[in-house]
Design a protein that fits this description.
With 178 residues, this protein is mainly α.
């Protein structure tokens, strides 16, 4: 789901630990951690995306692969990429050792994304996409397809979407009887 490759081994190990730590909890929290992850930021060019030249890679993958699959426009991606500017990588001894937010490189202007208007930043963009009606059906269908070979039927999808939403967007909520 969160594909990353070709990063230094310490970054990939760090990402693996993060995914294990947050993978069974709130999807919103997991998405926030993935967004701040140095390996992901480097892989999708979020690190060093500047307000004068926002990089759209992360915003596109956020909507297309991580949360919605459809129901957004190219303009939504451009605006989200503006909201995601300002992230930088920190280095020690020639190695990436983390990320940090540089307010000077962040586009603090008003953005219009998925029908909402405001001075959005990273956290707000992540909240906007997971709160979209299309998010829950997309995610439960994707998870179902990973674990079960038969296509999901409408009743199962409807129940899993309800469960996911009731659980506060927990990735694998505890469901009695399963």
């Amino acid at each position: 789901h969160f594909a990353t490759r070709d990063q230094d081994t310490p970054l990939m190990l760090r990402q693996n630990r993060m995914l294990r730590q947050y993978g069974m909890g709130s999807y919103r929290r997991l998405l926030r951690q993935v967004t701040r992850d140095p390996a992901m930021q480097l892989f999708l060019s979020l690190a060093d995306s500047h307000k004068d030249h926002p990089n759209e890679n992360f915003a596109r993958e956020l909507m297309e692969l991580f949360t919605l699959a459809e129901g957004y426009t190219e303009q939504d991606i451009r605006e989200a990429s503006r909201a995601l500017t300002g992230w930088r990588v920190s280095r020690a001894n020639g190695q990436v050792d983390g990320t940090w937010f540089d307010r000077e490189r962040y586009d603090d202007g008003v953005k219009r994304i998925l029908g909402q208007r405001g001075r959005f930043g990273t956290t707000e963009i992540l909240d906007i996409v997971v709160e979209r009606p299309r998010h829950a059906p997309f995610l439960v269908t994707k998870l179902w397809g990973f674990f079960i070979t038969e296509p999901i039927d409408r009743a199962s999808k409807r129940e899993l979407v309800r469960t996911y939403r009731r659980s506060g967007l927990r990735v694998l909520p505890v469901v009695e009887g399963i």
